[in-house]
Amino acid sequence: MAIQENQQTFSTSFSKLRGFLWPIHRHEYKKLIPMLFIFFFLSLDYNILRPMKDTLVVTAEHSGADVIPFIKVWAMFPMSVVLTYIFIRLSNRFSTETVFYTILSTFLCYFALFALFLYPAREQLHAHASANTLQQFLPEGMKGFVAMYRYWIFTSFYVMAELWGNIILFLLFWGFANQITKIDEAKRFYGLFGVGTNLSGIVAGPLSIIVTQYFTSLATFSFKDDWGKSMSALLAIVVLCGFITMAIFYWLTRVAMKDPRLMAHAHESVEEQTKKEKKKFSMRENIRFLTTSRYVLYIAVIVIAYNVIINLVEVLWKQEVRELHPDPVAYNTYMNEITTITGILATATSLFIAGNAIRRCGWTFTALITPIILLITSIGFFGFFFAKGHHDLITALFGMSPLALVVLFGSAQNCLSRAAKYTVFDATKEMTFVPLSAKDKVKAKAAIDGICNRLGKSGGSVIYQALLIPCGSITASVPYVGICLFAVIALWMVAVQGLGRKFQELTTPTANSENEREPDPQTVHSTLESGAAAVAM
Questions:
Q1: Is 250 helix (H, G, I), strand (E, B) or coil?
Q2: Rounded to whole angstroms, how far apart are CA atoms 347 and 444?
Q3: CA 422 from centroid of its chain's CA atoms
Q4: What string of pLDDT tens digits covers the 537 residues of the chain?
Q5: CB within 8 Å of 89: residues ≥ 6 apart
Q6: What are phi and psi of 281, to 5 degrees?
């Protein structure tokens, strides 16, 4: 019934073709288009940085994909605590705009420093001597930990590139978007928000490949290797896109957000809003809210499940890619090709599937797309991985080596799951926050993005570490990884069913009337502050 009502309302507002492709009113362009551009440039930087961070740590001489779980537990988590503590201190003293500019500038300064000073001096700065000594006393399964310590310059780059997605995209952008978007707008906007991310993947992949292969002369003279030359040019693009993002954000907050048609509660500027008294939530209160609200608990299970599964699969896949492409330039080129394909698939999904699936088929159907994709592709990926022992038979049947088939299925899984994540997963997850009251929205966003995202990523890495120590290698731990993966997918699908029923109750006309009230003007700033507090504490 609710789906039919939505379709009837939707059809009276737009023509059939426009309603399918671009269900946006003309007066909403001032809000939607700047947000699309902000998301595009932030995601473009992330799509450039993500293959680079993997290339640095995975293709290093004494390293491999088994370094990733150790980085995420022993380096990423402590560093996120430090950065989010700084974030909280800034949020307590300055406006949302100032915090945005400060945090973004800090990241951009690091990447410039890495290109100009840290990478050229890497051989002098890396801890080779002490790492060799440490390797003598630790078991073989701790090789990834030693590599993390040995290449600490690369580890720092990996952490900052990964935190770009967590802090800049999720806490800043999505926290801001959830507060200025109502439930009706979310059903039309959120599928399109993914277009910014997905188009950035289409641009970032070919751009990185061109720079890596042909434009090494654009880099500074201080690099002797081709990979270093191309990397410096890519980081220059990252910094440039960051400055463009800040300019667009300035216009959005100073001009567009003052239009009462776009934000009913935006009669004050962002700076004026943040001068008001702020409502802060402690870590204990966020956890209590998470455990006592079944609705939020369902969201937590879904977010944790996705991050656990992605971490389990990607480590194994990246190890196979390294075996097939051991050279850093070849590895980075391949990963950027994957980024391009992912962007194309995700853009098509955003335009033709995500928003229309939510409006026409319902939230539950759309939310189940991602776990089903991971389930089907995981069966093929693990099936060919275990068939690697039958090299001659597999080569005769498929005309490809077992290693190439494993990489192929892993790449297909990565492309499809990432495309689903950037569209249907993010859209359906963020929609679940919209029906909540202003106070509950702040606490839920802080608990999910501040605690559960980190818990899921660390959880997958902890599983790998627990298996690597007794098994000795990633290959030996694969059967146990597969068991964990399929169990988590089953739990994920059960949680989606439960959350779908709760979401339907909250978005019916009777339940939704109370929740469609104007949000508190201070909520934008409080969301960022509370989300950061949840991580840091």
A1: helix
A2: 29
A3: 8
A4: 344 444 444 444 666 666 666 778 787 788 888 888 988 999 999 999 999 999 999 999 888 888 999 998 899 878 877 776 777 677 778 877 788 888 999 999 999 999 999 999 998 999 999 999 998 888 888 999 999 999 999 999 999 999 998 788 877 777 677 666 666 776 677 667 767 677 888 899 999 988 877 665 544 444 557 788 888 889 999 999 999 999 998 888 788 777 666 654 444 444 444 444 445 555 566 667 777 788 989 999 999 999 999 989 889 999 899 999 988 888 998 999 998 998 888 777 776 776 678 778 889 999 999 999 999 999 988 988 888 778 778 888 888 888 888 899 899 999 998 888 877 898 888 888 878 876 777 677 767 876 787 788 888 888 988 888 888 888 888 999 999 999 999 999 999 999 999 998 887 765 444 444 433 433 333 333 333 333 334
A5: none
A6: -125, 135
Residue 466 neighbours by CB distance under 10 Å: 14
DSSP 373-440: HHHHHHHHHHHHHHGGG-HHHHHHHHSS-HHHHHHHHHHHHHHHHHHHIIIIIHHHHHHTTTTS-HHH
Q: Using alpha carbons, list the distances in angstroms from residue 42 to 72, 140, 148, 204, 320.
A: 22, 39, 27, 11, 29
Give residues with Cβ within 8 angstroms of 483, minimum separation 6: none
Residue spans of beta strands (DSSP E) within 188-262: none
Q: Whole-prediction pTM value?
A: 0.75
Distance CA 189, CA 334 (A): 32
**What domains, with CATH codes, occur in the chain?**
28-279+286-536 (1.20.1250.20)
